[in-house]
From TrEMBL:
GO MF annotation terms: ATP binding; ATP hydrolysis activity
Keyword Protein transport among UniProt keywords: no
Gene (name only): sufC
Keyword entries, A-Z: ATP-binding, Nucleotide-binding
NCBIfam families (UniProt xref): sufC
Residue span, ABC transporter domain: 2-248
Family of this protein: Belongs to the ABC transporter superfamily. Ycf16 family.
InterPro entries found in the cross-reference section: AAA+_ATPase, ABC_transporter-like_ATP-bd, ABC_transporter-like_CS, FeS-cluster_ATPase_SufC, P-loop_NTPase
Protein name, as recorded: Fe-S cluster assembly ATPase SufC
Matches recorded under Gene3D superfamilies: P-loop containing nucleotide triphosphate hydrolases
Length: 251
């Protein structure tokens, strides 16, 4: 599904290499987690895949279901089925959640050559989706993320993800700043979207999120590369011993 081969990336405004040959394949229906020390390139990888500016790909490829992502604009990548949940979701004052969601859904449907959803169709679907994710219907009436707690912002992103129904979901430190209860609710929302077809790439610092979103594969990233991959036990090893032993293995 998601295939990354020898990806090298540097900052646009300075000659600084951030990614130094990332190789990664996320299969349909699988959850892959990436962990690593600060500055290892985890978030940069998510930004480059989603099309955020400020980065230059100097070598390598990234594709989704065989389609070259790096040749597409950010909105085209979204229409192709890529979704990025941000570490710090932005507030959009004056724009209602319902309006934002319907505009996003219909923009993607139009880009794929599908019929747009009517107001009635959308209202029925968004209410049902919010209920299935245990999201209070009052959240739908508020401006996007304005006055939301950290947990509400993250759950709102899960709702967006569910409505857009992407093929590939990238979660960039979605547990950042959440208390245990909020993290459990977010994890439940993610798990509700695991359908055996959709792929997930979960970027996190902490094992605690992976207690709730069970990964199939865990990768350790350091110095712009994935240096070790394994099963869920690899995350437990990091939790117990830190990264020092793993980093020493590849020196």
């Amino acid at each position: 599904m998601l295939n990354i081969n020898n990806l090298h990336v540097q900052l646009e405004d300075e000659d600084k290499q951030i990614l130094k040959g990332v190789d990664l394949t996320v299969e349909a229906g699988k959850v892959h987690a990436i962990m690593g020390p600060n500055g290892s390139g985890k978030s940069t990888l998510s930004y480059v895949l989603s099309g955020k500016g400020g980065y230059v790909v100097t070598e390598g490829t990234a594709s989704l279901d065989g389609q070259d992502l790096l040749d597409l604009e950010a909105e085209e990548r979204a229409a192709a089925g890529l979704f990025l949940a941000f570490q710090y979701p932005v507030e959009i004052p004056g724009v209602g959640n319902m309006t934002f969601l319907r505009t996003a859904v219909n923009a993607q449907r139009k880009a794929r050559g599908e019929d747009e959803m009517s107001a009635a169709e959308f209202l029925k679907e968004v209410r049902a989706t919010a209920k299935s994710l245990k999201i209070d219907a009052d959240m739908l009436k508020r401006p996007v993320n304005v006055g939301f707690s950290g947990g509400e912002k993250k759950r709102n992103e899960i709702l967006q993800m569910a409505m857009l129904s992407p093929k590939m979901c990238i979660l960039d430190e979605t547990d950042s700043g959440l208390d245990v209860d909020a993290m459990k609710l977010v994890a439940e929302g993610v798990n509700a979207l695991r359908d055996g077809k959709r792929g997930f790439l979960v970027i996190t610092h902490y094992q605690r999120l992976l207690d709730h979103i069970k990964p199939d594969v865990v990768h350790i990233m350091a110095n712009g590369r994935i240096i070790k991959s394994g099963g869920p036990e690899l995350a437990l090893e990091v939790e117990n011993n830190g990264y020092a032993d793993i980093l020493a293995e590849v020196e």
